[in-house]
Please model this.
Amino acid sequence: MYAWIWRKFPGGFRSKLTFSLVLLTAVGSLLWYVIFPWATPLLPFDDVQVESGTGQEVDGGSDGTIPGEEAPDELPYSDTTNHPSPEAS
Model:
């Protein structure tokens, strides 16, 4: 297909290269400004639902935490075990 397009462009190498770049720019602009904005509402990329681990709603406290679970700011592991404190040698 690309060879057919290249053969159909008039002129020499520079002319064909210029026509190719213009065609590439025109197709890219058409996709970017017309086709993609039209198709975006039809695609499910923004249809995201975040639920708790079981997929069921859980009644949390007034601060949004779930009873019996750690606070979201607390790590369930030690973050210092792989980073020992420096010692003078």
In short: The first helix runs from residue 2 to 8. The chain has two helices and no strands. The mean pLDDT is 77.
